[in-house]
Structure formats: structure tokens, C-alpha cells
Amino acid sequence: MSDYLGEEGVKNIKKKSQEHPSIKEPLLKEEQFQKLKLNKFREIYGNFAG
Questions:
Q1: Does the first or last residue of the chain, that is N or C, have fewer Cβ atoms within 10 Å of its Cβ?
Q2: How many Å is the Cα radius of gyration of the chain?
Q3: Is position 50 within any domain?
Q4: Which tens digits make up the pLDDT trace of 9-50?
Q5: Contact, 17 vs 23, CB < 8 A?
Q6: Which residue range is the domain that position 7 belongs to?
Q7: 41 lies in a domain?
């Protein structure tokens, strides 16, 4: 489930960055942050998620 939400979040961020090129930079940083958070979540809870 977290994978799905993460991918959807990235898609939304990419869509927003295309609509508003001027705010592309912070959105890319946000995307990287979300990926890091997701990776950390997987490290901690990976065993439970299967």
C-alpha cells in the first residue's frame, strides 16, 4: 500500500511541476525527500510488509 501511495505522490508532484515550472525546484526536492522517507520506512518496516 505504501508503494502505491508513494508512486501516486510522485506522479502528482511531477504533474504539478509541469504545470508550474517556476516552482519545479522545491517540488523536486520534495520528491527526493518523499523517496528518502519511503526508503527509511521500508528499512524499518520491510520485514512486516513482506
A1: C
A2: 13
A3: no
A4: 777 766 765 666 666 677 788 889 989 998 888 888 876 655
A5: yes
A6: 2-45
A7: yes
What 8-state DSSP symbol labels residue 50? -
Cα gap 42→44, rounded to integer Å: 5
**CA-to-CA separations, 8 to 14, 27, 31, 32, 47, in angstroms, rounded:** 10, 14, 11, 14, 23
Q: Please state the φ and ψ torsions of residue 22, each to the nearest 5 degrees.
A: -65, -25
Q: Is residue 17 included in any domain, yes or no?
A: yes
Name the DSSP class of 28: H
Question: Which residue reads 515550472 in cell numbers?
Answer: 21
Structural domain total, the chain: 1
Phi, psi of 20 (to 5 degrees): -130, 80
Give residue 21's pLDDT: 60
